Amino acid sequence: MKSAVETLNPTRVRLTVEVPFEELKPSLDAAYKKINQQVTVPGFRKGKVPARVIDQRFGRGAVLEEAVNDALPKLYQEAVEEGELSPLGQPEVDITELKDNELLAFTAEVDVRPAIEIPDYSGIEVTVDAVEVADEDVEKAVGQLRERFASTTVVERPAAEGDVVKVDLEAKVDGEVLEDGVAKGIDYVIGSGELLDGIDEAVTGLEAGGSATFTSELKGGSAAGREAEVKVDVTSVSARELPELDDDFAQMASEFDTIEELRADTRKRLERMKKYDQATQAQEKVLDALISLVEVPIPEKLLQDEINTRKHNLVNHQLPQLGMDLAAYLRMQEKSEEEFEAELKEQAEKGIRTQFILDELVAKEKLNVNQEELTEHLVRRAQSSGMSPDQFAQAIVESGQVPMLVGEVARGKALALVVEAAKVTDSNGEVVDLEDEEDEAEDGETAEAATAEAEGAETSSEESAEQGGEKSEG
């Protein structure tokens, strides 16, 4: 077999392949055998029809077509390996010549990974937010814990801020009650801002049995983002009593003996969270800086496929879980469809560039992924998808996505190399030591999260695993 590669553009090539006819003999034999099992010819036992009879009765062309279809994938793969190509997607194959007993010639056009030159990235410098925990942050966190231990008592008086009201809600849009616009028995703390805009003013001053109507923009459901007329019925009013912030509270709400020990631990916890956020911010900024240094041509078909995949995942998996469709989502985001498509394209382009650049870095630095690293990554993915590690692993294996997870870990390691080489300072001008911060990260995530988010791979891998799990359960 002879093959040649013609570069059409930085991301697309044309393979020209010529195959001597004798190399098709295994596929020709397989074609005769397959046709033999499918046809019946009087005077011959099934499967024992001679080749010359098949040629006479059904035509040599049918045999050649079957043989070529059988041989093409293997011949194409041999040409790809000979040309040392990294194809993306399926090729467009065109048979240019087929001479019986002489020659098969074909061309195959396919998108390929572009050649990327990784420049010196040691000069990357980024600035991140400083880790600062104010006394107000500590008191707010302790106050939130205090709220969880509040007691309530039903009272016979008008509702006021801080009270808990039990309410029934009914939402109308254009005068029609929404199918998902009725809710009963909801407990709401007046002033918490956790429900609809306008409800605080509507229920303040109402006693049990009272009703009010207000207008509000719906935050979710089938009419998310639209103005609705909401009727609220108050069925009970309860006063909340917060425990004193003293040592007794600390012993009741935590493992600490004193309120000061609880405050000190809260400060440490907030510092750990802010350090992890700082490390994540550094990874994202370093990644953006790296991407800006590298010219990456993107195959048009690959880009369109990535856009379609992201849109499909959003419309068919993420939004239904929130009880809304794309139109409701766009209303809530206050975006036009054109703005949404442009944003989607920008995200897809960044994801592809990220993957190409980090994959090149993985190859350049000869980075490998060991079993322990893969297992840790798999466990984290399982946790975020709500599946057990065993279920997630089984689904990933059945859907053939183990190489994708290996790639995520490898790209995370590649980004970690770049982050380690970069100069990271905080907004106070202090140099940030990210190694300590990653060690202290509560959930164990590293640069893998930043790369997965940029690529959009995390969601798709979890959704694929969940779908695979559903199939295996069924």
TrEMBL record:
* Recorded superkingdom: Bacteria
* Organism of this sequence: Streptomyces glaucosporus
- Composition bias (Acidic residues) maps to 432-446
Task: Please state every residue range assigned to the domain named PPIase FKBP-type.
Answer: 162-209
The segments labelled Disordered in the record are: 426-474
Low complexity compositional bias, start-end: 447-459
What SUPFAM superfamilies has UniProt attached to this entry? FKBP-like, Triger factor/SurA peptide-binding domain-like, Trigger factor ribosome-binding domain
Q: Where found? A: Cytoplasm
* Note on domains (UniProt): Consists of 3 domains; the N-terminus binds the ribosome, the middle domain has PPIase activity, while the C-terminus has intrinsic chaperone activity on its own.
Q: Which range is the signal sequence, renumbered to this chain?
A: none
The top EC class is: isomerase
Per the record's keyword annotation, is Isomerase included, yes or no?
yes
Q: Does the UniProt entry include the keyword Ribosomal protein?
A: no
Q: Could you tell me what this protein does?
A: Involved in protein export. Acts as a chaperone by maintaining the newly synthesized protein in an open conformation. Functions as a peptidyl-prolyl cis-trans isomerase.
Keyword entries, A-Z: Cell cycle, Cell division, Chaperone, Cytoplasm, Isomerase, Rotamase
Hey, which family's this protein in?
Belongs to the FKBP-type PPIase family. Tig subfamily.
Recorded hits in Pfam families, A to Z, give: FKBP_C, Trigger_C, Trigger_N
The protein's matches in InterPro entries, at most eight in alphabetical order, are given as: PPIase_dom_sf (IPR046357), PPIase_FKBP_dom (IPR001179), Trig_fac (IPR005215), Trigger_fac_C (IPR008880), Trigger_fac_C_sf (IPR037041), Trigger_fac_ribosome-bd_bac (IPR008881), Trigger_fac_ribosome-bd_sf (IPR036611), Trigger_fact/SurA_dom_sf (IPR027304)
EC number(s) of the enzyme? 5.2.1.8
Give the catalytic activity: [protein]-peptidylproline (omega=180) = [protein]-peptidylproline (omega=0)
Q: What is this protein called?
A: Trigger factor
